[in-house]
């Protein structure tokens, strides 16, 4: 009964979204207050109905209702509760229901917190948001219904993919969806502004918090996925340039560009046309990611489905919304003339360079991701584009970005003095060069990657600190730091976080040590500065798996540091093995141990890595997300908080 109730709630949400997409849009065009007022209660009702539907599906997974086809395919009665819950979105149909739940949530939030928006703009934003929801409701109900029943329920389910039975993967998809589905509200603001025919500083102030919120969630989601891949898959890496990884990374790059571009619109009423375009493209790339994951056009270990019918439906949604918005953008280009002028040396120019680098980097990733598909379609050749291409083509743009960020963050608006900024940054530059030189002197026979990474990371961290210290002036009144706006702290923390991540990436890739061998029992061996010894392998039973668990002693300079317990698990129901790496984590390095198969001649295959600065990668991501959250908590950048009661008059175009 609860399942039928959830299905009915989903159908009602679809109907409410249809009303919300049409009535407020007509009301805004005709200036009918009653029709425009429909948008807010409709957005709330739509969210509540989808939440009820999602709750009904979650209930079916928790109680193991095997009369539901989706539960049979993705759950098992012996599975721990956390993975029963995460099984709701660990499949195509359930993840799409999570998609529309978040889509409806952002629409409802725009209704709840958009009271200071001009009535016509608010109505149009909510109508556009609902039109996107209509398309995805139709996609779910007609091609991906999660509430299908089985005539003869089985005794038990087929279990969730064992790779997804992990805490990191339990929380990774919700955060990721909050990020790139959240960009839909930026898209709705852009399309609504194009229909209104007005983009001004108030619009930039309204769209910026939504972009920042989405970017923060995307950062957390991508970091969780990278962390999971690092410790769960047993291959020792943190990023594979897989098509689905790239599908979330491309919107992140464009969201970062949009965030910086919206600053220029808000402060100087410049870059209006470019900012609108970025808002459209950022959500467009989110839709491209959805198409990649669910169409089967590209092979990926992360893909949910490979159904051509579903792929065509999503492709139609992508073409309709992105193509329609770009057409409207072209038609309205004349009304987005920039008002603010600025010199070549200014913060505006630095932000333009920032945007160019991020956008081109996104295009590089996009080209590398889709090129195998293009090559097969046009030339009949099967190609593989892997890490060497992406590392070579993508890295230079990140190096340039790291070089200009400290300067761009400190230079003045409109007309700046480059010499003054460089003079302030001399201590940071000296420190970065000194550390890079020290690393170069210490390493022998290595590449430039390590010293360059240390220089860039130190330059970004020290540059952010210099920016903050510069705010206290000549008086050196340290209490002024506590009184700085949270947005200033947020910018410094986020930029420093990028520097810490760069340090981690460079350290891991430049100085990693690897050892692969057949380890014999009680036969110590050395990897780098560490001595390891396999003490034994024991057969253990988990809640829904069996495991060969090794015990490895880790020593340095003769002193025992830790006992590590790598595992090789087997899930009988799913019929699939997984590898559980054992990691001795440290501030400056990880020792990473993977247990392989037993060998006929005795011993076990074992891989050992020593990974310098590995945890700095995710520590930097945490700092970036924290910086975004600090900025978001600044009252000036909370949703519509910066708008005054007189602001609505500015956003309504003259008749």
UniProtKB/TrEMBL annotation:
<dbReference type="Pfam" id="PF16327">
    <property type="entry name" value="CcmF_C"/>
</dbReference>
<feature type="transmembrane region" description="Helical">
    <location>
        <begin position="394"/>
        <end position="413"/>
    </location>
</feature>
<feature type="transmembrane region" description="Helical">
    <location>
        <begin position="175"/>
        <end position="195"/>
    </location>
</feature>
<dbReference type="InterPro" id="IPR032523">
    <property type="entry name" value="CcmF_C"/>
</dbReference>
<comment type="similarity">
    <text>Belongs to the CcmF/CycK/Ccl1/NrfE/CcsA family.</text>
</comment>
<dbReference type="InterPro" id="IPR003568">
    <property type="entry name" value="Cyt_c_biogenesis_CcmF"/>
</dbReference>
<dbReference type="GO" id="GO:0016829">
    <property type="term" value="F:lyase activity"/>
</dbReference>
<keyword id="KW-0997">Cell inner membrane</keyword>
<feature type="transmembrane region" description="Helical">
    <location>
        <begin position="125"/>
        <end position="144"/>
    </location>
</feature>
<keyword id="KW-0201">Cytochrome c-type biogenesis</keyword>
<protein>
    <submittedName>
        <fullName>Heme lyase CcmF/NrfE family subunit</fullName>
    </submittedName>
</protein>
<feature type="transmembrane region" description="Helical">
    <location>
        <begin position="96"/>
        <end position="113"/>
    </location>
</feature>
<feature type="transmembrane region" description="Helical">
    <location>
        <begin position="249"/>
        <end position="265"/>
    </location>
</feature>
<keyword id="KW-0456">Lyase</keyword>
<feature type="transmembrane region" description="Helical">
    <location>
        <begin position="47"/>
        <end position="72"/>
    </location>
</feature>
<feature type="transmembrane region" description="Helical">
    <location>
        <begin position="489"/>
        <end position="511"/>
    </location>
</feature>
<keyword id="KW-0472">Membrane</keyword>
<feature type="transmembrane region" description="Helical">
    <location>
        <begin position="352"/>
        <end position="374"/>
    </location>
</feature>
<feature type="transmembrane region" description="Helical">
    <location>
        <begin position="274"/>
        <end position="292"/>
    </location>
</feature>
<keyword id="KW-1133">Transmembrane helix</keyword>
<feature type="domain" description="Cytochrome c assembly protein">
    <location>
        <begin position="89"/>
        <end position="295"/>
    </location>
</feature>
<feature type="transmembrane region" description="Helical">
    <location>
        <begin position="207"/>
        <end position="229"/>
    </location>
</feature>
<feature type="transmembrane region" description="Helical">
    <location>
        <begin position="448"/>
        <end position="469"/>
    </location>
</feature>
<feature type="transmembrane region" description="Helical">
    <location>
        <begin position="312"/>
        <end position="331"/>
    </location>
</feature>
<dbReference type="Pfam" id="PF01578">
    <property type="entry name" value="Cytochrom_C_asm"/>
</dbReference>
<keyword id="KW-1003">Cell membrane</keyword>
<comment type="function">
    <text>Required for the biogenesis of c-type cytochromes. Possible subunit of a heme lyase.</text>
</comment>
<feature type="transmembrane region" description="Helical">
    <location>
        <begin position="425"/>
        <end position="442"/>
    </location>
</feature>
<feature type="transmembrane region" description="Helical">
    <location>
        <begin position="613"/>
        <end position="632"/>
    </location>
</feature>
<dbReference type="InterPro" id="IPR003567">
    <property type="entry name" value="Cyt_c_biogenesis"/>
</dbReference>
<feature type="transmembrane region" description="Helical">
    <location>
        <begin position="6"/>
        <end position="26"/>
    </location>
</feature>
<keyword id="KW-0812">Transmembrane</keyword>
<dbReference type="InterPro" id="IPR002541">
    <property type="entry name" value="Cyt_c_assembly"/>
</dbReference>
<feature type="domain" description="Cytochrome c-type biogenesis protein CcmF C-terminal">
    <location>
        <begin position="315"/>
        <end position="635"/>
    </location>
</feature>
């Amino acid at each position: 009964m609860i399942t039928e109730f959830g299905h009915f709630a989903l159908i009602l949400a679809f109907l409410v979204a249809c009303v919300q997409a049409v009535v407020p849009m007509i009301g805004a065009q005709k200036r009918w207050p009653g029709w425009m007022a429909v948008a807010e209660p409709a957005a709330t009702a739509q969210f509540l109905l989808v939440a009820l539907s999602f709750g009904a599906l979650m209930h079916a997974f928790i109680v193991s209702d095997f009369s539901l086809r989706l539960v049979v395919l993705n759950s098992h009665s012996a599975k721990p509760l956390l993975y029963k819950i995460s099984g709701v979105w660990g499949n195509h149909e359930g993840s799409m229901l999570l998609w529309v739940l978040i889509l409806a949530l952002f629409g409802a939030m725009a209704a709840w917190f958009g009271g200071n928006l001009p009535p016509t703009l608010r109505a149009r934003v909510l109508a556009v948001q609902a039109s996107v929801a209509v398309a995805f409701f139709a996609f779910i109900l007609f091609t991906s219904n999660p509430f299908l029943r089985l005539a003869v329920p089985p005794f038990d389910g087929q279990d969730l993919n064992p790779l997804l039975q992990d805490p990191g993967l339990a929380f990774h998809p919700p955060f990721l969806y909050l990020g790139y589905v959240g960009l839909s509200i930026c898209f709705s603001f852009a399309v609504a502004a194009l229909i209104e025919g007005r983009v001004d500083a108030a619009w930039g102030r309204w769209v910026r918090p939504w972009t920042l919120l989405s970017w923060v969630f995307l950062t957390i989601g991508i970091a969780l996925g990278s962390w999971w891949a690092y410790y769960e898959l047993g291959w020792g890496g943190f990023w594979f340039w897989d098509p689905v990884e790239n599908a979330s990374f491309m919107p992140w790059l464009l969201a970062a560009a949009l965030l910086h571009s919206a600053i220029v619109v808000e402060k100087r009423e410049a870059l209006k046309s470019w900012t609108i375009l970025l808002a459209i493209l950022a959500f467009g790339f989110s839709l491209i990611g959805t198409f990649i994951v669910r169409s089967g056009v590209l092979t990926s270990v992360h893909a949910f489905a490979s159904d051509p019918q579903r792929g065509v439906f999503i492709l139609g949604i992508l073409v309709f919304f992105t193509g329609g918005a770009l057409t409207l953008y072209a038609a309205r280009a004349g009304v987005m003339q920039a008002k603010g002028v600025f010199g070549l040396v200014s913060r505006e120019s630095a932000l333009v360079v920032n945007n160019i680098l991020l956008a081109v980097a996104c295009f590089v990733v996009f080209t590398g991701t889709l090129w195998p598909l293009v090559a097969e379609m046009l030339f009949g050749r099967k190609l593989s584009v892997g890490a060497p291409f992406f590392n070579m083509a993508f890295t230079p743009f990140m190096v340039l970005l790291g070089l200009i960020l400290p300067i761009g963050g400190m230079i003045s608006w409109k007309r700046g003095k480059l010499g003054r900024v460089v003079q302030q940054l001399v201590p940071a530059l000296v420190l970065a060069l000194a550390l890079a030189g020290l690393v170069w002197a210490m390493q022998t026979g290595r590449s430039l990657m390590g010293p360059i990474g240390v220089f860039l990371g130190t330059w970004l961290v020290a540059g952010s600190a210099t920016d903050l210290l510069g705010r206290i002036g000549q008086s050196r009144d340290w209490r002024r730091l506590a009184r700085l706006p949270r947005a200033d702290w947020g910018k410094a923390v986020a930029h420093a976080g990028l520097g810490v991540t760069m340090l981690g990436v460079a350290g891991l890739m430049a100085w990693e040590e690897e050892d692969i061998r057949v380890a014999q029992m009680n036969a110590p061996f050395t990897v780098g500065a560490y001595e390891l010894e396999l003490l034994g392998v024991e057969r253990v039973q988990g809640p829904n798996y069996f495991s060969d668990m090794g015990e490895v002693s880790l020593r340095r300079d003769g002193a025992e540091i830790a006992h590590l317990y790598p595992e090789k698990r087997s899930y009988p129901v799913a019929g699939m093995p997984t590898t559980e790496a054992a990691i001795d984590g440290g501030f400056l390095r990880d020792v990473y141990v993977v247990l392989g198969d037993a060998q006929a001649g005795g011993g076990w295959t074992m891989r050992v890595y020593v990974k310098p600065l590995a945890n700095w990668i995710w520590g930097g991501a945490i700092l970036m997300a924290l910086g975004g959250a600090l900025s978001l908590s600044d009252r000036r950048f909370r949703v519509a908080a910066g708008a005054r009661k007189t602001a609505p008059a500015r956003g309504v175009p003259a008749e």
